[in-house]
Structures are given as C-alpha cells and as structure tokens.
Amino acid sequence: MCLSMSFEVLLKIRRSLDSEPVSIRVPLGKKLRKILLEHHLSPYQREKKIFNCRGMGICGTCKVLVLENGQWWERRSCQIQCFHEMEIQLK
Ligand code: FES
Question: Which ligand 1 atom is the nearest neighbour of the CA of 55?
Fold first, then answer.
C-alpha cells in the first residue's frame, strides 16, 4: 500500500491588474520565485533578468504584487513560500 501524499496549494497569477488570473497548483512550501521561473513567468523586468541576486533576498528586483486582505502589497518573490492559496500580479 502506498501512503505517499502530495500537498499542493492554489496560486493565481495575473499579468496585469485588469487581466484574468491563471490558476496553477504548486507544491506546498515552494518558493514563489522558483515557481514563476519554472513556468516561464519571470518576476524580473528587462536587464534585471540577468542582474539579480538569484533568490538570495538582497537585490529586491524580484518583486511582485501579492493580494493580502483585499490590498496589493509589493513583496520579494524569492522570500515567499507558498503555504496557502495566493493571488499575485506580475509587475
Ligand atoms: S532575487 Fe534578489 S531579492 Fe529576490
């Protein structure tokens, strides 16, 4: 008998404020930056795709908007772990 379980959470991603969110299921606890890059949705803009700290939390170039309590907040995607359903917007 196999008892392996996979835990996932729902992540809703908008490309802009007026766009419809795309929903994907992601592994519980996975870093948001890594998820975005794996789905070819870069949190970086222009030259920051090359010049960034690669998720060390130092440069601040990986910011996305995160919907929390009805408001959008700027957060570093490399510092966010997906532990619950989230909605984000790329900048
Ligand atoms: S990648 Fe540098 S702060 Fe997130």
Answer: 1
Phi/psi at 72 (5° precision): -90, 130
Beta bridge partners of 81: 31
CATH fold of 8-89: Ubiquitin-like (UB roll) (3.10.20)
Tokens of 91: 């900048």
d(CA 55, CA 72): 22
Tell me the pLDDT tens digit for each residue of 31-47: 999 999 999 999 999 88
Degrees to nearest 5, angle at CA 82 with 81 and 88: 105
- pTM of the shown model: 0.89
Ligand 1, atom 1, lies closest to the CA of 55
Whether 49 is in the pocket of ligand 1, judged by its Cβ within 6 Å, is no
Domains in the chain: boundaries: 8-89
The CB density around residue 15, as the number of other CB atoms within 10 Å, is 13
